[in-house]
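User: I'm putting together notes for a lab meeting next week and I want to include a structural view of one of the chains we've been expressing. I don't have a solved structure, so I'd like a prediction I can at least talk through. The sequence is below, exactly as it appears in our construct file.
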Amino acid sequence: MTQHRMIEARREELSSRDAEETVAFVSEMYSDNALRFWAAPPRCRVRTSAMVWGEVIATEIRSTIGYTCQIAPLEDHIYFERSLRGRARLRGGGHDLQQHRNDLTMFPFGVPILADCDSHDVNLLHIPYAVLVELAAESGVDPGGFRFTSLEPRDLRSQRFWGRLFDLTHHELTAPDSPVLTELVVHNLTRTLAAAALAVFPNTTMDLHLQPGPGAVSTSAVQRAIDYLQANPARPITIAELATHAGTSVRALQNAFRSQHDTTPLEYLRRVRLDRARTDLRAAEPSDGYTVAVIAARWGFTHPGRFAQLYKETYGVSPKHELGH
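Assistant: Thanks for the context. Below is the predicted structure for the 325-residue chain, given as structure tokens.
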């Protein structure tokens, strides 16, 4: 069977309840930033806990102090936040946002941020900004022109959707019994969060009607992309990487796949992975501990029910029927 790289979570945790220790702790936490305290009661507390799953990080911050911090521009990751208690104010890049209990927001990217925090308990999800840029490029937006235009969900419906996804993801990533994940599963989880963020928070992908159309792509370029997908199905391939290999732009490659194969490059990759999962199911020995869920997750299908439905729609039989046959 194909080898899949495993990723095991790493927990990082620090806490303090003594006022002097807390001030020293927070000062160390923000050592690269200008920090000013204005409320630190004698029985104050600060605790930070982070679960690191590859490039995706789920963080909890619990604090009973008040401080102002000048945060250096975010360069690699973008932070999405749910406020649980207290209040905060974020300013940067022309944004000025007040945060209260249950608010869902994001941090401005690439600009200095001035944060005022008062007894602020928050949960955070950190995902690589490059994934957002990549997905924006898949939609046809020039990577250099991509940006978010608001730090809050665009409407109440989007806010509810993002809240459910945020809470579920954060809970699973911080649970003590979170399973060991493969590189492919982490990659797909990150893309799901990024795609949802692009649908929820106003950004330049929502102005695609202003973008020029793509150029033509030869059948040989599409075939190069297909050969690459067939040869590397277990890798977390990006559409930008695939377009580079094919020698064309992301948007042009997507249009070529639709016109020549009535699908998208990443949907084609999903079909390849489904086919490889079928091969593994048939070769598996149940006595060795292989199950449908284990094999499905190996190929990036993390929801057993949806995998079983897709499998039956594609092959006409359930994956359980295929196991060991």
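A couple of points you could mention at the meeting. The two ends are 15 Å apart (CA to CA). The CA atoms of residues 47 and 228 lie 46 Å apart.

User: Perfect, that's what I needed.
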